[in-house]
TrEMBL record:
It comes from the Bacteria. InterPro entries: DUF2399 (IPR024465), Spo11/TopoVI_A_sf (IPR036078). Gene3D superfamilies: 3.40.1360.10. Residues 264-407 form the DUF2399 domain. Pfam families: DUF2399 (PF09664). This is DUF2399 domain-containing protein.
Length: 410
């Protein structure tokens, strides 16, 4: 059956310019849903999964069981059966030119999607209600998760998505509560009992929600403290790390940094950089003897173990600290966080290479996003070094931000 075969007397046709809407006279479920083959039943199951009240026809074609050139006929036949049984309405758009009197499906509007699911025994409503109860009962212990959990309680999600996000956040809450530190695979094993179960979509959703995995102590690879310095480091027993090793740049466990009791060697300054290629550039200068700096790489939003190791290192080095991060709102926030750690150790710090002219900001062609603008307004409410305040105001004027690496390409 095709749309041209429908009994139009059983439909109300509402016309407007360039479009019409077919509304069945029968109420949803007043007539049985008949004449579907097995593939159409499977297609209907796919169509009913999303939570929305309407679906575009192009999406419905793409999500049908028929993947050949017969997909359109397969879907149109199913659509006719749904219209006959009163379960949906159809919005059509008129063609152009000579085809202006020929209307094609544009969007299907469900009249009672959940009722159809129940009638077919496919309803997920009981499971949704059970999950909603679990969301309501769960109160995250870690403050970083409270806002995300509150949003999830109000959000309309598919059952599988709701179940997965609840499990992910509960696992993350335990991870943070235990102050664990590890790789994405290790975290995935703990939460999902499989090292590769943490999906790209999970990470993107957490990032969009404003949560940094790095700050939670979860990194793509084994987390280390990256350091370059022309220093000999001693623990309680004796020599722990030789300058010949450190000057070339070393990836150290945070525990090793915390084991250092004193350092020997000339330290004129401590330079902290966010971009790893910039860290490598300054490591080469230390290795060649051009620089007497201690160079440290800060991995995005730093975890508590990194912060503890860095604070300990700063306490051992009687030298000013210079912090250079990406010229974006996140970079400013990281610089402030590093600066606070320095101040707690009674040392001075200042931003470094985080002030550029507005033409340079535009040069990177990296526009601010909505979340960036909100972050900037939040940061401007804080007490800031002049360089960072000027940078944020320049971002607002230009609408652009800049990666740190661009400043060190020459």
């Amino acid at each position: 059956m095709l749309l041209s075969d429908l009994d139009m007397s059983a439909l109300v046709r509402e016309e407007s310019k360039g479009r019409d809407r077919l509304v069945p006279r029968p109420l949803p479920g007043a007539l049985p849903l008949l004449g579907l083959d097995e593939a159409q039943w499977q297609t209907l199951r796919s169509w009913l999964k999303p939570t929305g009240a309407s679906s575009k026809w192009t999406w419905m074609i793409e999500n049908s069981q028929e993947k050949t050139e017969r997909a359109w006929l397969h879907c149109e036949s199913l659509l006719c059966r749904l219209l006959q049984a009163g379960w949906c309405e159809l919005i059509r758009h008129a063609g152009k030119g000579a085809a202006q009197n020929h209307y094609l499906p544009y969007k299907v509007v469900w009249r009672d999607k959940e009722g159809l699911r129940r009638a077919l025994g496919w309803s997920t409503q009981p499971e949704k209600e059970a999950l909603q109860e679990l969301w309501s009962q769960w109160q995250p212990r870690h403050p970083w998760l409270k806002d995300i959990a509150a949003l999830c309680r109000k959000a309309s999600m598919q059952v599988d998505t709701s179940r997965r996000r609840l499990r992910l956040l509960q696992g993350l809450d335990d991870w943070l509560g235990e102050e664990r530190f590890g790789t994405e695979r290790q975290f995935s094993q703990v939460v999902f009992q499989h090292t590769k179960a943490l999906a790209k979509g999970d990470k993107e959703w957490l990032a969009e929600s404003g949560l940094s995995l790095d700050a939670c102590g979860i990194s793509p690879h084994t987390p280390y403290f990256f350091l370059a310095a022309n220093l000999d480091c001693y623990d309680e027993v004796g020599l722990l790390l030789r300058s010949s090793l450190l000057r070339k740049g070393s990836a150290l466990p945070t525990e090793s940094v915390l084991d250092i009791k004193r350092v020997a060697g000339l330290v004129r300054e401590v330079r902290v950089v966010e971009n790893f290629s910039v860290f490598q550039t300054f490591t080469q200068q230390v290795a060649s003897g051009v620089s007497d700096a201690v160079v440290v790489w800060v991995p995005g939003q730093p975890h508590s173990r990194w912060r503890n190791a860095f604070s300990h290192l700063v306490s051992l080095c009687d030298a000013p600290v210079y912090v250079a991060c990406d010229l974006d709102p996140a970079g400013v926030a990281i610089a402030l966080q590093v600066g606070q750690l320095v101040e707690k150790q009674g040392r001075s710090w200042q931003p470094w290479s985080m002030q550029v002219d507005e033409d340079k900001l535009r040069e990177g062609n990296w526009p601010l996003e909505t979340l960036d603008r909100r972050h900037i307004q939040s940061l401007l409410q804080q007490s800031l070094p002049d360089d960072l305040r000027n940078l944020l105001e320049a971002m607002v004027r230009t609408g652009h931000k800049l990666e740190q690496e661009i400043l060190f390409l020459e």
